[in-house]
Amino acid sequence: MAVLAFLGAAFPSLMIALFVGALAGGATWFLTRRRPGVSPVIVGVVLAVLAFAGLALDQAYTTVKYGTVGLVVRFSALTGQVFQPGLHWKTPFIDQVIPVSTVVQSYEASDDPTASGADYRDYPVTAQTIDGQQIQIKYTVLFRIPPEKAVSIVQNVGFPQFVVENVVKAHSRNLSRLWAQGYTAEELFSGDGIFEYENKVYETLTESFVPYGVTLDSFLVRKIDFGEEYVNAIEQQQIAQEAIETARYQSEAAEFEKERQIRLSEAEAERTKLLAVADAERTKLLAAADAERQRLLAEAEAYSIEARGETLEAYPNVVQWEFVRNLQNVQWGFLPSEGVSPFLPIPSFEGVQP
Q1: Comparing C-alpha atoms, which of 250, 252, 253, 198 is closest to residue 223?
Q2: What is the side-by-side strand order in the sheet with 77-83?
Q3: 64 φ, ψ (degrees, to nearest 5)
Q4: pLDDT tens per residue across span 153-203
Q5: What span, in angstroms and rounded, lies between the C-alpha atoms of 120 and 113?
Q6: Which of 165, 207, 303, 317 places its Cα 20 to 30 Å from the Cα of 75?
């Protein structure tokens, strides 16, 4: 793989060398065959000129890879010229182009730097909270070198490895430790305190990077480790708090059940009261209805009697007729001597002596 990588990188130079070699061979053949009297010195000079031309051509161009910029160095000094990714021409044998990465790079503080995949790795920061608890802060810094400031950064700070050591590492470890001393262990253990701490470090770290031209993209708190005794104390406190909450919930549940029973009793009493009122109202209504019925029956009976009286008054024989009609198994009877008309004509026996 290393051989293939070398061949890929050196391919343009190899092609130029082959081209120059072909030219040198052709020139040698031409001079020796076509010009037998040509001095060997002349042949050597021609070959040297061709070789130098080939080397100059190879040194006259350069390529800059994506994600980087090329800084032009001439006689060990930065010219200020910056090559963007692509093909560029330069002064052969004099100018050198040094690549500088402009993509986002990472600096990470973790327990095991060898297992990290960050660009630059380090160990956690040890700090002490305002209430005296020892902690270890593990974090990640994402930063980059702006292309337009690459010359200034390299001129004043150095190449990326020096930027990491003298700017990113120095300031991030210092500020993360200082800001942790302004918080209690409880604030950094959980809750919004961690986010507030992270934002504070980010803001001050951004300001610290400005004079150097480095851009801070993110400051990320990965984890804050506490001492075992503090963790156990917090766990016991949480257990006690949960027990208190459970007892409070149970008390509230009992109170709620008590209130529910009271409400049920009140509802039952109200129901009984309403049923009694309804029953009394029903009895009252039934009595009123029965009285109304009796009144209507009495009125009907009176009306019937009155009607019969008027009928008898108009037709007095109806009484006699009804009387006779209702007689059953009667063989004889007495009739008053006056005021009653017989139903059948009876012959008169006046003047007949018994």
Answers
A1: 198
A2: 77-83, 68-74, 95-101
A3: -115, 125
A4: 999 999 999 999 999 999 999 999 999 999 988 888 877 889 999 999 999
A5: 9
A6: 165
Contacts of 321 (CB under 8 A, 6+ apart): 343
Give the per-residue SS3 of the chain.
CHHHHHHHHHHHHHHHHHHHHHHHHHHHHHHHHHCCCCCHHHHHHHHHHHHHHHHHHHHCEEEECCCEEEEEEECCEEEEEEECCEEEECCCCCEEEEEEECCCEEEEECCCHHHCCCCEEECCEEEECCCCCEEEEEEEEEEECCHHHHHHHHHHCCCHHHHHHHHHHHHHHHHHHHHHCCCCHHHHHCCHHHHHHHHHHHHHHHHHHHHHCCEEEEEEEEEEEECHHHHHHHHHHHHHHHHHHHHHHHHHHHHHHHHHHHHHHHHHHHHHHHHHHHHHHHHHHHHHHHHHHHHHHHHHHHHHHHHHHHHHHHCCHHHHHHHHHCCCCCCCCCCCCCCCCCCCCCCCCCCCCC
pLDDT in tens, 54-100: 666 666 778 899 999 999 999 888 888 999 999 888 878 788 899 99
